Amino acid sequence: MEGVLVGSAHVLVAVLGDERVVCLRRRPAVDHDVAPGSLDVAQQLGADVPLSPAEELGPFALGAVHALELGWIACLVGEDEGNDAGTLSSPPMTTEAAVREDHADSEYAGVLRFYELAKRVEWQVRDLPWNDAPPIPEYKGTPEKLARRRDLWRLVVTQQLQADQIAVDMAAQLFTTAPHAEAKLYYTTLVQDEARHTEAWLQLVEQAGGMAERDPYLDQLAHMTLEADTLEEKVFLMQVFYERLIIPRFRLIARSSRGTVLEELCNRLAIDDGIHHGAGMAYERVLLANADKRTKDQLISAANRMLPIFAKHALWRPKAREFIGSLMYERDVAWLKQDLEHGVRLARSLGLDVSDIDLSF
Ligand SMILES: [Fe+2]
Ligand SMILES: [Fe+2]
Asked: Does residue 120 contact residue 275 with C-beta atoms inside 8 Å?
């Protein structure tokens, strides 16, 4: 189902986490020179299991964002998934930006709240610690080991760059396609966010040693999303599914790259994508409230078409790391299953009939 589409756009990140896992614990013989203690697999992967929304989105070193605002974003995301319902009606936020009384009764109130929030937490690429921290983790060891480690991080950064480049296309299309003024207003911030993310990744990939191999299945998923027939499908795939699934991946990468530009960037992106997802949930609710059965059925069909590609994406490894892919197969499958279940829950929370979702690929 729609959850299906998830992983593509941003999710590639997972590759890195998995490979690191291999390096560290499970297969020390494969790549055993990872800095001791810095990449505790058990802790990292354990922590990546569904956390409470508040945990997932904070705390981050985003000085410009008030803690209450971060908490509010978390509450909204949590509510989307059926957790702690009721927070939306009484957000723990006190700023005038969060709740605009003049739109409180509008069906677009949720979208507009995220519009205000997005503007409030906007940051600039120059805010990242380019001159005060290494771009990616640094290690000690032989030149071969250092090169191997750098290749892994280049892969991580490349996949995120690829995902955000795709996100710019999708955001621009959503801005163009959405017929509602309130949604268009919000999408101006989504386009800016994704463009800024891309700019940051471009700068980071250069400092990390250049691009690595692209994931062909991610490009395929992006194409399918951009070619989707209805706005309901596009919003679901991009914002409801992909934007939500990427958040724990960002947290995983951040935990594995302490003290680097990469860590800071991932922390910021986790917040931004929490807003992107929240806005998408709010808008999708409005769209589906006015959609006929055919449109909803179409959404489920599109999800079923994309599922097998998403699975290939989730299990993909670049040629140079294919041998690790086989070692990590079980872990990949577990993540995939988790992502799909999450997607089903999101779809159900939007009132969609998920009984026709085919997970038997
Ligand atoms: Fe992004
Ligand atoms: Fe995003």
From this structure: no
Ligand 1 centroid–CA 275 distance in Å is 11
**How far apart (Å, rounded) are the C-alpha atoms in residues 159 and 281?**
25
Q: State which fold the 2-349 domain adopts.
A: Ribonucleotide Reductase, subunit A (1.10.620)
Q: Nearest bound ligand to CA 160? A: 1
Write out pLDDT tens, residues 166-206: 999 999 999 999 999 999 999 999 999 999 999 999 999 99
Does this model's pTM top 0.85? My answer is no
259: CB partners within 8 A, 6+ apart? 133, 134
Distance 288 CA to ligand 1 centre (A): 25
- What pLDDT, in 10s, does the model give residues 158-168? 999 999 999 99
Domain residue extents for the chain: 2-349
Q: How do residues 109-149 score in pLDDT, each as one tens digit?
A: 999 999 999 999 999 999 999 999 999 999 999 999 999 89
Taking alpha carbons only, the member of 227, 3, 37, 253 closest to residue 135 is 253
Ligand 1 geometric centre to CA of 116 (Å) = 18
Reading the block at residue 149, the tokens are: 């480690």
Cα 300 to ligand 1 centroid, rounded to whole Å: 25
DSSP labels, 333-348: HHHHHHHHHHHHHHHH
